Amino acid sequence: MARKRSEGPAALGFLVPSVVGLTIFVMVPTILAIATSLFDWPTFGDVEFAGLKNYQRLFARGSTFPAALRNTIVFTLVIVPLNLVLTLGLAFWVATSRWRRFYRVLFFVPVVTPTVATSIIWKMIYQPGGILDDLLSRVGFTMPNLLGTGNTALMAVVVVVIWNGLGYNTLIFSAAIDQLPDDVIAAARIDGASGWRQLWHVKIPLLTPAIFFATTITMIHAFQVFAQPYVMTAGGPGTATVTVVMDVYQTAFQGGALGAASAPAMVLFALILVVTAVQWLGQRKWVHYE
Amino acid sequence: MLLRVRHAVSEGLLLIVALLFIFPIVYTVASSLKPAGEVFSRPPTLVGSELRWANYTEVFEYAPFHRYILNGVIQSGLGTVVVLIVSALAAYAFGILRWRGRDQTLLAYLATMMIPQEVLVIPMFLLLQRLGWINTWQALILPWAFGAFGTFLLRQFFLSLPYELVEAARVDGCNHWQTFLRVILPLAKPSLAVLGVWTFITYWNSFLWPLIVVNDIVELGNVSIGLQTFFGERGAAWNLILAASVIAIAPTILVVILLQKHLVKGIATVGLAGR
After folding, report:
1. Which of A6, A20, A26, A283 should one mutate to test binding to chain B, selecting the residue with the greatest count of B CBs within 10 A?
2. Which residues of A, range 229-258, sit inside 8 Å of B by Cβ?
3. Which pLDDT does position B275 carry in this prediction?
4. What pLDDT band is residue B270 in, cutting at 50, 70 and 90?
5. What is B63-233's CATH number, 3.30.70.1450, 1.10.10.10, 1.10.287.130, 1.10.3720.10?
6. Has residue A63 got a pLDDT over 80?
7. Are B160 and B129 in contact (CB under 8 A)?
8. Tens digits of per-residue pLDDT, A202-225?
9. Which homologous superfamily does the CATH classification assign to the domain defined by A65-286?
10. A22, A33, A210 ranked by CB distance to B123: nearest
11. Per DSSP, what are the bridge partners of residue A42?
């Protein structure tokens, strides 16, 4: 076999556009993000070094950040397990159907629909005097103003976020279920494993790589919730549905304090990094790669 | 027999669940054709006292939705072209060419996918402010065109191509550029379609970034921004708001139905590449 020349110079050529773009639009802003969080940085006006003041202010009196952080964590803790259980169940269920391809597309529709539109739709559904209110009152429930009540607003938003994203993981699990090795499942059946045992001891372990992937992605998305509460409640009532991303947006672009808004953005970044790292380190314990 | 009954019951239940799931969208389409004031009529009805198609013409009179759609098409179209070109070039370097440090470089690329957009919006805004790009087309398109996702997706596909093709092209006297253009790209059409559809939808549905960087909504706003503005204006009636929502939703539903194969394949590739 002929000795190959290195294709390094050619590779460099092919990588130029992407490396230049990544540097300007990802690397530089990332470094700048850390830097801005250390400055008093108004949209217009003088920039001043502030040290860690922006971070201290996060927990100062009157700051919305503690509520935003709490809401974002609650969001994630509720959305991730609920989403995974529902989508995994749905994927298995749909796989038994004659119209499985149709269902996969149907459940996928809200995923690609503009979030602003789906948020408006759900605002209509939740509206006092609206359809949900009417249906519940027929079965004897008095529904509070779901989006206008502190106790229920966050969960009402959670329902919308889950509905919006359900089709994504369903499709991921469906693709993985389609690829389950027939011989292994046939072997389990011949060994006399019941349907339930096949599911629990054979299929689910084989799906753990997909479950791992879906968990990571869903978690990151849950940390980034913005459009649904922004359109439906604008963070209210009070701070009941403010999320960290909304806090960043409002502080920076409605309050004009870019430096102060960079601090919660960095906290979000750190959260995502830590959670993902923990996931990766923990995957040995439960993810089975063939 | 029992098994067949069970199967039929399961099919029936699944159909009910699916109908309930999609009901909000069906109800929206139905309500978008109701006369003003009937959206919240009691008891609620699916169809109003008449089918008022005029809602749709009135939406376009109140707000320039044709313009929002056009803006969205331009942004998404140009963004998709940039992403496809940049990603295909980089994927060739990572998937086909052999050089020292390739895998480490790819890992560094993938690491950038961990940086969420929300963390970058403030510094990106500052950067574009210095460049004088606020409220421009390029500000909407370029900042998010260099994610490593597209490169990774195409690289996975390029790896699956038989390497003999590249060697054969070499023997025939093709240089790398010719191999890329004449051998790899034509074979990569399905994966380019997958990436293209995904990128288009991502740009089309973008909301946070245009909210930040667009000042002149009519000139540059996409459908999401237009819809949010229309919704936020006091006095817009619900039947018109819902008609506007349907206008925003319709193209994406059409895309899902027409291009379902590509979408499904994209998700499957990415999801299964997690291993």
Report:
1. A26
2. 231, 245, 248-249, 252-253, 258
3. 39
4. low
5. 1.10.3720.10
6. yes
7. no
8. 899 999 989 998 999 899 999 999
9. MetI-like (1.10.3720.10)
10. A33
11. A257
